[in-house]
Design brief:
By secondary structure, the chain is of the alpha/beta class. The chain contains 13 helices and 18 strands.
Amino acid sequence: MKVNGTHYRSLWWDDDRQALQIIDQRWLPHDFRVQQVDTMQDFADAIVEMRVRGAPLIGATAAYGMALAARLDPSDAHLDESFAFLDKTRPTAINLRWALTRCRAHLKALPVDERAAAALKLAHEISDEDVEINRNIGRNGLEIIRGIAAGKKDGEPVRILTHCNAGWIATVDWGTATSPMYQAHDAGIPIHVWVDETRPRNQGALTSWELGSHGIPHTYITDNAGGHLMQHGQVDLVIVGTDRTTRRGDVCNKIGTYLKALAAKANNVPFYVALPSPTIDWAVDNGVAEIPIEERLEREVTHIQGLKEDGTIGQVQVTPVGTPGGNPAFDVTPNHLVTGLITERGVCAASAEGLAGLFPDLSKLAESA
């Protein structure tokens, strides 16, 4: 997508510098900064500190981390060490483990002297695959929006609510939940997006930055406003992303998603999840019981970052001194609250049968593992 008229991906390889470049998302939406990632520690810090964030982008970043590991030392022992080092950076998003596993398995099957070049090639492929996956998610989600638009009066927008940022900067490009929005807007379908602020890190501001750059009408709302809007018929559908989805269709996403799903169910508002296949964890059935939920720093809750009146970016404390902050980063939405899963292969029910029907190859592979 574009920033100030220039096309960017969330990460890209600089051939001249032989190094990965990332958009450092800690400073968005107020400042656009690019960082070069040079060391294995840089890769770990980028993921832990959410310089890169969003399950697909974390996976792509990890693939380039394994490429660096193979360049430094392509031995089996070092690949295993690098796998473990990066795997512990964030526990919830399954794309991290998926990318690391894919890279290590691919490289270990090759002669040692071929691994460095092959690792970089694979990282490029994983990034390009993510772009196409998200483009196709958008095409399939577009048909849902088009169907709702057909029942609207001329010029009346389809009103979409989204939570967190599942946009292009949470992926390599296009985004998951936002891809149908971009494609609907580009197709001339009027839409309006309700953007949840998504405390504590306020990723909704990133979504607003993205949508505004693309010219899509939107309104930034508090996390608690969504239910009210649904009660008053101002939301036509909800589309969110996912960091991990179980084989039966339970969805783990940013904290607060579960509450939106409950409100949508109570008000007969369709609740869709944009689901790239690498986020399916075929080894997990019950998301509430089995998915580990990352507990992040309490400072993210007790403090808030923003643009000060003097034009600098800084943090202020919003809680009384000494008050502790609890910070579970994700929650799980059970499959019975999900209207459908929008994938790169089509839209299916949030169920074991629905996912296996669209991805028989992956489900059978998981069964045989």
